[in-house]
Amino acid sequence: MSTIGQWQLRAAFAVRLSEMYGREVPAYTTLVDVSREVNEDVLRARGADAERLGSIGRVTAERHGAIRVGTPRELHQVARVFGALGMHPVGFYDLREAAASAVPVVSTAFRPVDAEELARNPFRVFTSLLTPADPRFFDADLRARLERFLAARELFPPELLTLADRATADRGLPAEDAERFLELAVQAFELSAEPVDRAWYRTLEKVSAVAADIGGVRSTHINHLTPRVLDIDELYRRMTDRGIEMIDTIQGPPAWKGPDVLLRQTSFRALAEPRAMRTEDGGVVSGALRVRFGEVEARGIALTRAGRALYDELLGRVDEQAAEQPAAARADLARAVWERYLPGSEEELAARGLAYFTYRLADDRPRDGLEPPTALAELVRQGWVRAEPVVYEDFLPRSAAGIFQSNLGAEGTRDYEQQGTAHDADWLSGAVGREVLDPFALYERQQDQSLARVARALGRTAPVR
Fold it and tell me: Which stretch is the leader sequence (predicted)?
């Protein structure tokens, strides 16, 4: 019997999840359609340059999802499900510190990590974990009630977890088992029809709409799905023209004349979805919850640690200028800051060690018999070696918090007199039950491996630098 490999499971899961979410949130289907139209138009206008950060096939198929869970046990279980798809936890994001609103979660992203696996299907799931132990958001009584509620629910059926473990161990599943796994996995993230306890949900909602979405229901669900687009500003205009209400801004770097870096994101506003609500007297009435939305992203070049430090510095400059000039458009301020301080070409980003690239020996390199230069920058400048940007595969905590915050009906509450509970990547690794990988190390490994191949091709024993 043929085996369905992990990347094939991952691709099939992404497609089925997208189909399911489109049925639940029709505006998401509109978002996908408009993204496809924009990508096709950009490809026609820019040709091969449009595929500099990924083939049009990859970009069109690309998705990231977002889910929220309540306990380390639930996080560990979801890691088993995503592990079956060849997805690993990468990066630690503390959204508690990144948002002005109450967003009491820490997060990681499950995704493939090898370049070949990313090329096959780069599906990612941004996964947030509630932090009931943080006294800034939950007092002792509410924490105890919340933890009891979370401990009593079961998000993932045992059959799904058993199949997931088999897929991880065997790097795939027989066709019949693969079908069952996909069926159960998609079901686990469907919106439940079970009535929501209205009083309990509202209690949590006073603290945080995100906390209520996680701990106020007895199941999890896909919170949003995100297609990738090549021109996010054009997509924003077209969605608005179709009468779909978008959030106020595009999160992340501004639109500017230089290289696309990191990640830009926006979304349509969370929709009021009908939900059955259980009242205090045990009756069931019709209600609505506004927690799910449709996000879209444009991905750029991965920055090094030095590049990220510069990015954070530039964000600080923009914040300062926005405070000093409240009437000015933030996008205009950001564009001016970027054009003053950020290198305007890929070549300069590489030369200053601000971004990651892979390198390969050029097919049309010089054939004049002369020895190639020793320095990497000269190898590139003289045409011996080609530099290709590494796509940023991860997320930005401030942007993620900004998306969450833009879709909340209220800011919630936070007790600034309390000391926050310390959580970091090591703590999250313990909760997940496997190491949360460092994204910088993954990008650096990809770059270093390419440089080692160039050195071998040039007959050198020392690395090319």
Answer: none
User: Hey, what are 261's tokens?
Assistant: 């870096």
Q: Are residues 252 and 309 in the same domain?
A: no
Q: Quick check: is 364 in a domain?
A: yes
pLDDT along the chain (465 residues), means of 10: 91 95 90 94 92 89 93 97 98 86 90 93 95 94 97 96 98 97 97 93 92 94 92 94 87 93 90 89 89 88 97 93 91 94 95 96 85 90 93 90 68 81 93 96 96 91 79
Kindly state whether residues 107 and 80 are assigned to the same domain: yes
**Whole-prediction pTM:** 0.93
Matching residue, tokens 């933890």: 147
Q: CA-CA distance, 196 to 273, in Å (whole number)?
A: 13
Residue 228 lies in a domain: yes
Distance CA 347, CA 363 (A): 19
Q: Are residues 419 and 286 in the same domain?
A: yes
Q: Note down the domain range covering 313.
A: 303-343
Give the CA distances from residue 455 to residues 69, 385, 450, in Å, rounded to whole numbers and listed in that order.
46, 11, 9
